[in-house]
Request: fold
Amino acid sequence: MSETTTSQTASAEALPKAQNPAKQFIKKFTQRKSAVAGLAFIIFILIIAVIGPSITPYNPNAYDYNALLAGPSPQHIWGTDEFGRDVFSRILAGAQLSLGTALTASVIGTAAGVVLGLIAGFFGGIVDSFIMRVCDVMFAFPGILLAIAIVAIIGPGITNVMIGVAVFTVPSFARIIRGAVLEVKSELYVEVAQSIGCSRLRTMFVHVFPGTLQALIVNFSMNVGGAILSASSLSFLGFGASVTQAEWGAILSQGRNYLATAPHLVFFPGLVIFLTVLAFNLFGDGLRDTLDPKLN
Amino acid sequence: MANISKNVSRRGFVAAAGATVAGLGLAGCAGNSDSTTDTTTGSADSTELITTDKDGFVVRAEQTDGKAPANECIIALEGAIQDTNPMTCSDGNSVNVMYYIYDTLVCWDSNFELQPAAADSWEISEDACTYTFHIRDGITFEDGTPFDAACVVTNYQAAIDPANNWRRRRMFIRTLDDDTEEVRVDNVYAVDEMTVAFHLVKPYSPFMNSVSQFSIVNPTVVVQGNNYDYSKGSAGSGPYRLVEYAQGDHTSLELREGYWGEEPAIEKITFREVPEAGSRIAMLQTGEATVVYPTPSDQVETIRSAGDINMCSTPSNIMRYVTLNNDVEALSDVRVRQAMNYAIDKDAYIRVMFSGAATEATSVLPTIVPGYAKQEPYKFDLEKAKSLMEEAGYADGFDINLIGDNSTQETKGMTFVMQQLAQININVNVQPNEPATNAEITAEPEDTTTVQMWYVNWSQSDADGFLRSLLYSTSLPPIGYNTAFWKNADFDEQVDAGNAAATVDEQNEHYAEAQSIAWEACPWLFLASDNYLYSYKSYLSDVKMIPNGIDVMHSTLNV
Reply:
């Protein structure tokens, strides 16, 4: 008995190890240092977004008329603004609003894009042509311009900025997902699913959709960076957050009036926006490199 | 592509991320403080307070040998030039443009004294009802039409024509409570070819101020009423003509031939609308602008270090205030309005907004306007403010909207008001709008208006221009600017008595009484009268600030 067991074990050891895809993915991903750093920063900034408002050294709206436009000092490490408000506290507190806006917009835009892409790719024909031509029309506008146009029509405000940014996210996702669907649709398991009588909806969501997840995740992570930039730009232009709210773009926008006298007012919010967008892009890059079979 | 950018940015990214994390660590040690009224932290305040020398200079240029790129004076303004029709325009910047294009019979100088303009002399009859003006010989409009007594009469008739519905009509005809009209001037006639007389129904002491704002248009144009487009071409007898009016961007003027007075030295004047304070200063530094008005008060250091820019500060006839719509339930209680005034730290306002270059409001009039009477200021007193709010039943405050223009300074001012009123639990929702949008919103009549509070400013050269236009009970929008919708019969009576007064002393007595009534009732948040802060390149000489705006008529450019 014991001999057989030993020999079985021995032969099992001789076989190549069963590959755990998750482990493999983590191994490959961790080799990309920049992507890991990006992810670490994203996690860090997300934590800040959640707990930021409760850990600020000063109340982000507390003014101090005796310390106007003061440069960085031990009391105010990132200086104060034109009302003597602590810039560091405002940026910490603003993470929630800035990231919240961008993430919400990305999620909404992605969800709509995915549904449209699935429908277009799966059903094909006239539905496909219609959706794709509408997307082409939207591609004709530069994204930020389209968002400005939308916000100009429906009026300024954080909610409307989310809608604006979401709308220009839709066509790129619709196109990417459609491409992925076309590829997955021709796979054998999809044909099998169809031949055993799965309904179209079931085939589309249960069998085809998971095949597009890889493309979805990669593009989503890349998109968030762009959305942060767009949402901040809109707030910078005065379309988004109210002038009294602590939001990165709005802080930057008010700070630019003091570019010559108090450059710290634009440097720090600018740096934070830059790093956050960079982190999302590096992370997205890493994900794509790891997941893309063509690059492996 | 992706690879390249990744390689380049990785090192920088890690370094920067490290720096940020280090920064966050530092912050952790700074401790947590949640008070909204922060105590002094001892940090150095980097804005310097503005002081002037005896000639009103804040900064005197050290380099004075610079040359202008062309014989063109570019004036960068904060606000918009909203109108090019001299019969309807009301905003300060449009009035400034009109000053260069059109003549008035008389005008104000920088000391608020009346000066002869198209009329070289005038008389007022003993009963104070007939004003006679002697027009200079030889004034002509561009097409050769002479500027004579008949021309003034034609302008008057066009101005009062109800079909035109021009704003200048109100100079001569007043609207009463019941929407009927009262004629102020019943006859304007030519005494002889070059002498024109205005006959008033009853004495009206601010009449000379009206005359100083009555721009005379070419009679062949003015009879066309609203069919003539003043934005396409001007029709004045002044030294300049309108070349281009690009609304929201720029307005260009050029010297015309045949001006009757001393010919100005500057060939072209361009007004550029630059709402961004930082951009205006940048334009001045590079020479893209010759004059900048207003100059942001926190940029003194930038200007000083530029070396070739002069900066001046002179007291102004601008009053900054917030109208409190008395029809809004919470604001209808005088105790609430007084509490709000007590809750505003005027010293801080002047420091934050104007780096000290302003005077606290001590009446509804700025100190330099004739007729000003000093009132007891609402000294910043939170305890008093809170107890007044409690008395009025608003200890927990209320929510309210505050509108204002969306320029840098105005937005900052609104934010300041929001911060101050938060101390007495009033939650102010700040809404910066385009100036044109605000003009529309605030022109809505009483029953449809949405204005609750309006952060605004006003400048006029006489007391009546403040008291009647802003606070008189029939000066409600769209006729006037009483957006506080404040109606007080005693106040009206004093203003009327002031208008009818035969002597200046008697007039000022009534105006003082009116100011005291308004001060007590607080239809506004009284803020401050800020100085004119204007800067110009050292290659431009002798810039003046007059009630009509920036005056470069007698300036020269070193080309």
Summary: The first strand of chain B starts at residue 57 and ends at 59. Chain B touches chain A through 58 residues (CB under 8 Å). The two ends of chain B are 51 Å apart (CA to CA). Chain B has 16 helices and 24 strands.
